[in-house]
Amino acid sequence: MKTQGELIDNVLKRLSDTAEQVWTRPEIARYGNEGLRRLSSDTLCVWDTLFLEDSATTGNYTCDAELQYMDGGDVICAQFSYTAPSDADYLDPGQLDLGPTNHTHLWETAYLTETYFRAVYQLPEDLAELERATWDYKRIEALRSSELESADSRYQINNGEVLGYLRDKDGWRSFRKWRVPAAAADSFTITGYLGLIRTPTDVSAETVLGSWGVCRRLPTMHPTRSAQGFGFPRRPFKDIRNTKVEHSRHATELENDDSVFEIPERYVKYVRNFVLFRCYERNGLGQDLQLSSFFKQRYDEGVLRIKARMKALNAYRRNIVGETQQSDGRPPRARLPWQYGRVVD
Amino acid sequence: MNRREIREEVFTRLNVELSSPVYWTADDVNESINDGYEEISDASEWYERNAVIPLLSNRTYYDLRSTLNDGFLSPRRCFNNQTNRWLSAVHLRELDMHTYRRWEILTVTEPEKRFMRGLWWFGVFPKKGADAGTLKFYYSAIPPALLQDTDSPGFQNESHYGLVEYALFDLLIQDGEVAKAMTHFKQYQEYEAALALDINRRIQGDKVNRLKG
To answer: Is A228 helix (H, G, I), strand (E, B) or coil?
Structure first.
């Protein structure tokens, strides 16, 4: 079972209802997406990264509802709500303070006399848990606003290097950088701004493997927000003076019968157990609460297995007393192969 | 037992004529046997494999979904073929707090440590500076399905009856015979637990535990 269609066929066969007399394909598809979402949020198994770029904020819409009016080819930049720092005093109660934005298109940045950097970002809705954040390759600290109020009471306006972040007062999905970035992150100069990367030399000085087609992989860059591990790099970021968020997210939703599951094939059976649990649970013909409970239990067992596997590597790890204390470290030195200078039988 | 023998055992217990089964076809039973084979392998992780992973330039994370295959379950050990050293397991916090703070940019030497992100991203530290060298990665996986009648499950014979019990459960539950199906599932679970125990206790009888082991 690799696709939504295969899952539905398999479930209907197990329900002995291939003629869809009791359960329909759209209903099972809905349960499948619910199961997939539950599995990824229960286990936090889908890991990903995203950049909250330290750059002059270009904003070209003011609320999510406007997105549906963007035309094909339009560049979607960011949401904004006011244009100068002094406007912040006039925000309506409850309105999200995303910081000032004074231009609406990327090319305008070349003509700005004053650059504003954004401190508050909206994290994507599919983010399940934030695992680690870095700025300029260095881990930044997760902080509570109460800690910063006493340590740096002007933390909302002081500019500087980003040393930490808050998530506890600006809204459910907010991410506030502390301090507000003072300079733009390093970035690539790309020729053109639409379509796929055609000239890898814009991005990397390394030797290009192959001589035709499009760019498949960029050195130093982990694919961000890629559902299947395939496709093309669309937007290269640099880590230098930039904020990166490593997180777990929900698996990509399935849209039609040909949609491929993002999770490995083995785990689709856990989703199947969830679907069977929902099918047997719903009121009406075919309801069987005993079977529903049985399949829910099997789904739960699957969740426990995944959690155990994600911790498996820790079992091989040596723990260090006091390891949560940060110490100055230095890069490891190159070591010779273990048998160097010895006679090996 | 091979797949044909397991299937015949299932038909016998269902009281179905072997030569011309009517209600359940041979394909139905084969599918249930393979479903059970996958389930018992997933629960016990008996199938251990290794694969060579080519090291890539400036690459910290390797996607085990594509680098290995869909059968990957969990990591075991990892060996660097250039240094002839085993990669030690490390937690991300250790790298953040007890090595160089900007550890992600280091390409000074061969990978020495390993860690996992999520269920299938395999990370190494430090990363390589060029497309050169390999790692040998040991892991547990789901075995290939039993496609031919002569194919046998890879684990010991006494656990093969677990597949018979699972197939009976799977077929009966499709037929709405819930009580009978549950009886067979309980028996299957006993086989599953016994196999998992065997896997975890392979050296238990002879192993002497001691300080500084």
So the answer is: coil
pLDDT by residue (tens digit) across A173-214? 899 999 999 988 887 776 766 677 766 676 777 677 677 777
Alpha-carbon distance values, A76 to A79, A175, A192 (Å): 9, 20, 15
| Contact residues, chain B, for A248 at CB < 8 Å | 118
Tell me the ipTM for this assembly: 0.91
Question: Which tokens go with A280?
Answer: 């047997």
Between chain A and chain B, the number of residue pairs with CB atoms below 8 A apart is 148
Residue type, A272: R
- Model pLDDT, residue A131: 93
Q: What is the pLDDT of residue A228?
A: 55
Closest residue to A317, CB basis, from B85, B91, B99: B91
Q: What is the average pLDDT across B29-40?
A: 95
Q: Which of B 113-132 lie inside 8 A of A, CB atoms?
A: 114-121, 126
Instruction: Provide the H-helix boundaries in chain B.
Output: 3-13, 26-44, 64-67, 92-98, 160-174, 178-200
* Residues with Cβ within 8 Å of residue B203, at least 6 apart in sequence: none
Q: For the whole model, what pTM was predicted?
A: 0.86
- Among residues B125, B143, B183, B129, the alpha carbon closest in space to that of B33 is found at B143
The confidence score (pLDDT) of residue B20 equals 75
User: Which residues are CB-contacts of B188 (< 8 A; sequence separation ≥ 6)?
Assistant: B36, B40, B162, B165, B166, B169
Q: Are the Cβ atoms of B109 and A323 closer than 8 angstroms?
A: no
| Amino acid letter for position A34 | E
